Structure formats: C-alpha cells, structure tokens
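Lab notebook, design round three. We kept the backbone fixed and only want residue identities now. Task for the bench partner: fill in a sequence for the structure below.
Input structure tokens:
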C-alpha cells in the first residue's frame, strides 16, 4: 500500500515538507510506503472550465496536475499539505486541487486522506477548513490525529522543535496506516466501498 503526500509549498524542503516527512516516517514504521509529490514553483493555472477533462480523464492543461493524477490512480491514500498564506492555503495548491479533484476526483473517491498546514504563527485552522472541503465533497474518509494537524515554525528545522506538532504528525501517520489496513481487511472479507450515488444538481432559483 502507498500514500501520496502532496507538498503545496513553494519551498521544496521547507516547513510543509518537513511535516510531511514526519508523516512519511510514521507510515514507514507502520508498514506503509509513501512518496512526497511537490507541486513545484511553476505557475499553476486555475480551472478554465473547458470541460475537456470529462472526455479525457485528465486535465486539458498538461502540467503537474496530470502527473499527480497518474500517481493517484494507483495510490491507496493521500495527505495534502500547505503553508498558510494570509490565513488560507497557498494559491498554488488551491489551483492544483481545484483541477485535480475536478478532473480526477474519481481516482481518489473513497480513499483515506488528510490535510496538514504549516505556519509561522496563525491561520492554520482556516487553511485546514479550506483543504478538508476537497476531501468531504469527494467521499474520502478523513484521517484525523490527536489534535488539528498543524505545525509551527519559520524554517524547516523549527518544525522539529514543535514537539506537539511532531507528535500530531506521527499520530496521523499511524492512524492512516491503521485505516488502510482496516479497509484492506474489509475488502478481503467482501466489504467493498458503496457504489457512487447520482446526486441531484440544484440551485436556489425557483
């Protein structure tokens, strides 16, 4: 089993990466493989609402989003990480996730996932609320920890000084590993995920 950890920070080896690395170490200690996928620093376009992904199965804008979707198809779980920018997730990961979930949400449906945030000081809970909405609209079991999954620090080395934050990341990794094994055992016993149910699309104009 394998978990893809997405680093939505412009710093490849900054605070967000350090937090994800702690989760990855915890996953490894519990028998789960992982890979950190960096969104990168090249501009990530927002969705242009062309609708071509419905025909292609991938986004019409061929960039890191499609590279991620290729990995997502075979992944068993996900952790999405972002630094806090103005009390919100980074612009890059927001555009990235908008397109990834719209073009390839079916590749992630019913797979366990979690979101983490890193900040120098504040804005983490607002960023987490934003990120978690991607999971909950896509029927993904949300993996929790022993506190809200956040770390604090201005530099990568600061993250390891946040002892409580490190413990939260470690617990998150253990909980993800447990849920993945539980799902695997359920499937072996014939308990499969429910089939997608058509959802009526409505608005508030009468």
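Proposed sequence:
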């Amino acid at each position: 089993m394998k978990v893809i950890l997405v680093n939505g920070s412009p710093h490849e080896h900054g605070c967000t990466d350090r937090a994800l690395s702690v989760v990855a170490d915890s996953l490894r200690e519990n028998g789960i493989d992982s890979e950190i996928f960096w969104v990168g620093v090249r501009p990530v376009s927002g969705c242009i609402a062309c609708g071509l992904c419905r025909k292609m199965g991938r986004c019409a804008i061929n960039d890191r989003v499609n590279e991620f979707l290729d990995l997502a198809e075979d992944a068993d779980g996900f952790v999405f990480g972002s630094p806090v920018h103005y009390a919100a997730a980074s612009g890059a990961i927001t555009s990235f996730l908008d397109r990834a979930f719209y073009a390839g949400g079916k590749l992630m449906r019913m797979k366990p996932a979690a979101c983490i945030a890193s900040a120098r000081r504040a804005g983490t809970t607002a960023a987490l609320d934003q990120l978690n909405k991607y999971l909950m609209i896509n029927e993904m079991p949300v993996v929790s920890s022993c506190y809200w999954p956040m770390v604090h620090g201005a530099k990568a080395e600061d993250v390891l000084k946040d002892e409580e934050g490190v413990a939260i990341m470690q617990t998150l990794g253990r909980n993800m590993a447990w849920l993945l094994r539980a799902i695997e055992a359920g499937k072996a016993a014939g308990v499969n995920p429910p089939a997608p149910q058509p959802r009526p699309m409505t608005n508030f104009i009468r």
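Keep this in mind before ordering anything: The first strand starts at residue 2 and ends at 7.
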